[in-house]
Specification:
The complex is a heterodimer of chains A (300) and B (535). With 300 residues, chain A is an alpha+beta fold. Helix content of chain A is 28%, strand content 16%. Chain B contains 17 helices and no strands. The structure holds iron/sulfur cluster (2 copies).
Chain lengths: 300, 535
């Protein structure tokens, strides 16, 4: 055999070996089912969907959940109410740090059970300081502890939201009523928004959320608490599936002290407007210019 | 009479030639490629598993949400940008000797950008939705999102370098003189573009008001300074390795020039780090929390402290070595110093800049980050992939630049064969001189070349005389000047043992270029003449 043909044969053998090794290396991908259907893979951005598209998609999610979990859920797509501007305020004078809000969020929003995820983190701070550096979100003792006060932190639904600005694909945006949402079917999972958020308000689905069928909250919506796919971002939506239908956020209902005040900033007679007008209100990290819709206040 | 033109080889033979350059090699080459392929495949496999199981297999979490992938991405953007450190002298200052060597830098830029793009891709939670980012079919949040800017500048830079290298190599292959109009504007654009890729990458971070550690105007200058240390250091290593392998047909000047660059940039980089530390630490505000954690640890957390001090030590020692004038004569030590600073900057940018931006978190929680095995596998796999690409590109480019190509054919079989041998001999001589082999072998090569040139020139002149070529006289004079040059190199070799390096340089530069231009223009014109049918 001439040198040239031997070389060619060797090269061909090497290439075949390489190609089959490559095939073996990527073989795990065959177990991957990122989307339930081609339809879902090719789904357009939320804002490009018509009302009919959206309704059909919600029905499909319901049918899929029936198959995957064997339960009936209702997936809605409530739209912002015209003229309503949501705002939230929290009374630091009476919050006792019981974390019932965080727990309520965990259940209401169908969070992953294994990580005990919640959109709310409650910080225990020393009286006399609002420096979060001295705070602790992992306290584990009876509350309220002596010499401490508590500051729950969740998405501030910023009007000048850094998370919205940075998203390369417009998978997250601000709705008419001020709520910042994520299209779980459009997010590419780059986590730039998570780096940009100054309030640690975003959560990533590091794996497929695990939740038992009987624990699933069946009252769901497309942009909020439906069970999320793997590899996408999520965040607090002020429970838009409730609040857009005139109900209150789950965290507020769970609060035993009445520290939470929710309402329409555009309505001069709302509770939240009363709080803003009459209490000593402060905004966390005001200096960043994020213009939050979440306010802290003190009674005394 | 038909228009006479010598045949210019086409694209297909070019591809075929490139393929054979890229895939032919000795045992060392095959071993190297096999090693890289194995590492890359381990990475591919790890990535496939990550896609299926989700990003939980990484060490990242909601507190530290970017890790090794984005660190490595940031670092290699810098490596890619550093190619300008060769492009600027080559094109802006018309440094002739850099002209060919610059391709080593430009090909590195291409490979580094591929590493960057892969690093971002593996960081995506949903790589299947990649198309959401494509302008037109997706929703490209430009110009608001800095990430979209980065996508544009990185791909643009890749395109520019592919075009410049591709065009120059293609011209060399065809034996045509590259038209400046077709590449010079792109070269100048690539200089500005190189700065832009690293600036935009810095803006990704420093535009985030919620992360005080990144939110500093010094970040972009620091990125550039460190890039201009790590990039040139890597190119120096590559040039020295190529020289050692005997596949490097260029002079020593590029190495010396790059060394001069890193002498300065290494100091600037350290200076900026010092400025950053002073500004943050002296005031003692909470904004310094990340930096304090990075340098000294905080609240019982110390994961990054050993990394950062190793980086500082590596960079300081390397900066010191670069300043030592004797370093250029100690290739081993030079390579060590370059590798030290390369690793030092890699740590400084990843563990020292990207990660601590997340620690403490925006709500001041201390959650540490340690890359998982999966992340290491994928990252090393990507780097191996980049090295595969770089190796293949160099294997194609270097012989094209230094040897005889079909584009140099004068249409006369015998002359082509002689030209081909001339190139080979000349390259062999340059390698022999540079590697400091025994005088006897040098002399042998030299006298071979000497007599060979004489014979070849005589043959060529005879051919012209027989055909009645009108340019014979001029051609003869050129041959004579070449012979004289060769003679003087020979004399130099005999007398001055010390200045071999310079002789090698001179040989390589003046003679190879002379040969190239001579064949490309003069010899081809007699080739055309010979092809004319007798009237
Ligand atoms: S708190 Fe964070 S996630 Fe919520 S709107 Fe502001 S930046 Fe976005
Ligand atoms: S993680 Fe998703 S929502 Fe966040 S910036 Fe990336 S694509 Fe946008």
């Amino acid at each position: 055999m001439s040198d040239l043909t031997r070389r060619t044969v060797l090269k061909a053998a090497g290439a075949t070996l390489g190609a089959s090794a490559f095939a073996a290396a990527i073989a795990p991908l065959t177990q991957w089912q990122p989307a339930e259907s081609v339809d879902e893979f090719l789904r357009r951005h939320y804002k490009e969907l018509t009302a009919e598209d959206l309704a059909a998609i919600c029905r499909r999610i319901e049918a899929d959940t029936k198959v995957s979990h064997g339960i009936d859920v209702h997936v809605a797509a409530p739209q912002p109410m015209p003229g309503v501007q949501f705002g939230y305020a929290l009374n630091l004078s009476i919050c006792v740090g019981c974390r019932r809000c965080a727990e309520a969020c965990h259940q209401e929003n169908n969070h992953d059970r294994t990580s005990h995820n919640s959109y709310i983190r409650v910080f225990e701070l020393d009286n006399g300081s609002i420096d979060l550096a001295t705070g602790d979100a992992t306290y584990d003792h009876p509350v309220p502890a002596k010499g401490k006060y508590y500051m729950p932190v969740q998405c501030h639904q910023c009007d000048n939201a850094p998370c919205v600005k940075v998203c390369p694909v417009e998978a997250t945006w601000k709705e008419q009523d001020g709520i910042v949402v994520v299209d779980y079917n459009w997010c590419i999972g780059c986590r730039y928004c998570e780096a940009a958020c100054p309030y640690h308000a975003r959560r990533f689905n590091w794996k497929k959320p695990e939740i038992k069928a009987e624990e699933i909250n069946p009252d769901q919506s497309y942009l909020s608490n439906r069970v999320r796919p793997q590899g996408v971002m999520e965040k607090c939506t002020f429970c838009l599936h409730r609040t857009r239908e005139g109900r209150l956020p789950a965290c507020l209902e769970a609060c035993p002290t009445g520290a939470r005040v929710f309402g329409d900033l555009a309505d001069p007679d709302s509770d939240i407007r009363w709080v803003l007008a009459n209490k000593r209100v402060f905004i966390l990290k005001d200096e960043l210019g994020t213009k939050p819709r979440f306010f802290y206040f003190f009674d005394k | 009479m038909a228009v006479i033109a010598l045949h210019r080889p086409g694209l297909l033979p070019f591809m075929r030639q490139a393929f054979s350059y890229a895939t032919d090699g000795g045992p060392l080459f095959y071993a190297w490629m096999t090693l890289l392929t194995c590492v890359a495949l381990v990475g591919v496999n790890a990535w496939a598993n990550q896609v299926v199981s989700g990003m939980q297999v990484t060490g990242m979490g909601d507190h530290v949400s970017w890790g090794l992938y984005i660190s490595n991405f940031t670092f290699f953007v810098g490596v890619a940008a550093a190619a300008v450190m060769m492009v600027i002298p080559a094109y802006l200052y018309h440094d002739h000797e850099m002209h060919d060597a610059v391709i080593v830098g430009e090909l590195l830029a291409i490979s580094a950008i591929v590493v960057c793009l892969l690093s971002v891709t593996v960081d995506l939670g949903r790589p299947d939705r990649f198309w959401h980012m494509m302008p037109g079919i997706g929703r490209f949040n430009w110009p608001i999102s800095l990430l979209t800017w980065d996508v544009i500048v990185l791909n643009g830079y890749l395109g520019l370098n592919v075009w410049i290298c591709g065009y120059l190599l293609w011209s060399r292959w065809r034996g045509t003189v590259p038209s400046p109009r077709l590449y010079l504007p792109f070269v100048f654009l690539s200089i500005i573009w190189a700065v832009s890729i690293h600036t935009v990458t810095a803006f990704l971070y420093c535009g985030l008001g919620g992360r005080p550690f990144w939110n500093t105007a010094l970040l972009a200058p620091r990125f550039l300074a460190s890039a201009f240390v790590a990039g040139p250091a890597l190119i120096i290593v590559v040039l020295l390795v190529l020289q050692r392998l005997g596949s490097y047909p260029f002079g020593d000047k590029p190495v010396r020039l790059l060394l001069r660059v890193v002498q300065i940039t290494a100091l600037i980089n350290l200076f900026m780090l010092a400025v950053e530390c002073f500004t943050a630490l002296y005031a003692g505000s909470t904004h310094a929390a990340s930096l304090r954690y990075l340098l000294f640890g905080a609240h019982g957390h110390h994961a990054l402290v050993p990394w950062m001090w190793s980086a500082i030590a590596l960079n300081v020692i390397a900066a010191g070595l670069f300043l030592w004038p004797g370093l250029i004569r100690r290739p081993g030590l030079l390579v060590t110093a370059c590798l030290m600073t390369f690793v030092g900057i890699w740590i400084e940018k990843g563990m020292g800049l990207v990660i601590p931006g997340f620690i403490p978190s925006t709500l001041h929680e201390m959650v540490e980050y340690v890359p998982s095995l999966t992340e290491w596998k994928i990252t090393l796999g990507i780097v191996a992939g980049g090295l595969i690409i770089y190796t293949l590109l160099l294997k194609i480019a270097l012989p094209l630049l230094s040897g005889w190509t079909p584009g140099l054919s004068v249409g006369v079989e015998a002359m082509d064969a002689q030209h081909r041998q001339l190139f080979d001999r000349l390259n062999a001589l340059v390698v022999a001189i540079r590697s400091g082999r025994g005088t006897t072998e040098l002399d042998r090569t030299m006298s071979f070349l000497d007599s060979y040139v004489r014979e070849h020139f005589a043959d060529e002149e005879q051919l012209m005389a027989d055909a009645g070529y009108p340019g014979l006289e001029g051609h003869r004079r050129m041959h004579a000047s070449f012979t004289a040059e060769l003679e003087s190199v020979r004399a130099g070799l005999a007398s001055l043992q010390a200045d071999r390096q310079e002789l090698a340089e001179r040989l390589h530069l003046s003679m190879r270029d002379w040969l190239l231009r001579h064949i490309q223009v003069e010899d081809r014109s007699y080739g055309v003449f010979l092809k004319q049918p007798a009237c």
